[in-house]
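This protein record is not my work; I was only asked to verify it. Where you disagree with what is written, explain briefly why. This is what I was given:
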Amino acid sequence: MQRSTALSKTARALFLGVALVSLMIACAGYAFLSEIRTPAGSSAVPNDITVDQGDSTSAIATKLRAAGLIRQPLLFTMLVRSQGLDGKLQAGTFHLRPNMTMSQIISALQVPARAEEVQVTLKEGLRLEEVAQVIGEAGIKNVEEQSFLDLAREGARFKDQHALLSSLPVTATLEGFLFPDTYRFNTTDTITDVINKMLDNFDQQYGTFEKQITVADANGAPMDVYSIVTIASIVQREAARTDEMPKIAAVFWNRLKPENLAETGNGKLQSDPTLQYALGKPGAWWPKLDHLTPEELNNPHPYNTRLHPGLPPGPISVPGLDALRAAARPDTSAPYLYFVASCSDPGAHNFATTNEEFQNFEQEYLNCKH
C-alpha cells in the first residue's frame, strides 16, 4: 500500500514536471513568436542599413540592432538559419523602417538592393579638368576629382576595351573621348566604371556615322579617330551654331591640304581655342585673348596652332555628336580657308576662300565692334 502511494506521488511529480516544462516551452515559444512579430519600434521613417559583400548573418544582425531595427540579434540569426537563408541575404544599402517585423526585414534583405544613383550632365566643350570637376562633385562615393583626372590621363589603360581608342598615342589622355551627355551613375561606382560608361557612350555615338566618314588621310583611307576627334574638339569651341559646324570643320581640314600650305603658313590652323587651351589654368581654363601681348600670342606651347602647323597634339575639349559628325563629314561645297565672326548675325560667321576676303571680313567686323 505504501509502495503504491509512493509510485503515485512519483507519477504526479513527473506529470507536474512535464507540465511545467511544456508550459515553459509554450511560454518560450510564445515569447519567440511575439518577438518575431513585434517590430523594434513604431517609426515609419526609413533607416538606411548597408550590408557589405561577405557580411555574415550575425554581422548583419549586429548592424540591424545598432540601427534600432531589431532587439535580439541572436534571435534574428536563428530565424534566418531556420529558414535556410544563411549566406543568402543580399549586399547593398537598404531602406528599412523600425516598424517592420523581423520577417519583413528578412524578406527585404533577400531582394537585391537598388543602388542609389546620381544624375550628372556633362556639357559639350569642357576640357578634361572641367570634366573631372563635374564628376568629382557629383556625389559618387568612390570618385574624387583628382583621382578621376589622374586615371583619365592614362588613356592607354582603356585601349584594350575600346577599339575606337586604337589610334590614341601611347602617352595620350582621354581628352575628347569622355562623351558629353546626361548620365546616371550608381553612387557605389568606381572611377573605372564611370570612365568606361562614358567611353561606351562615345563608342555608340561614333558608330552612328563611322561608315559615312568623308575625310581621308594621305593614303586615301578614312581619317583616323584621333584626328577626327581633335578637329571636332576645336570645332566645338569655335562654333556657336550647329548649322555652321560642317563649314568650320571644312576650313580646318582645308588648311591642312598640300595645295593650301602656301596660303596657310605650311598648314597652320590658327585656332584661338587651341591657344586658350595652352594658356588655360585653374579658375580660367579658357582665358580671353583680347589683351594678350605678341609674346603671349606666340607662346611656344605645342597646342598653339597660331605658331605650329598641323593638328595640335590632341583634342582640346569634349565634342558633342554634331561637332563629331561635322569633323567626319565637313562641308565640301567651297574651299573655305578662313572665317570671321559676323556683326550683323550674332553667333554666325563669314567664310572666305582667300586672304583678301578674310581681311575685308575682319575689317568689317572691327568697324562694327567699334
The chain has three domains: 35-114, 117-206, 217-336. The two ends are 134 Å apart (CA to CA).
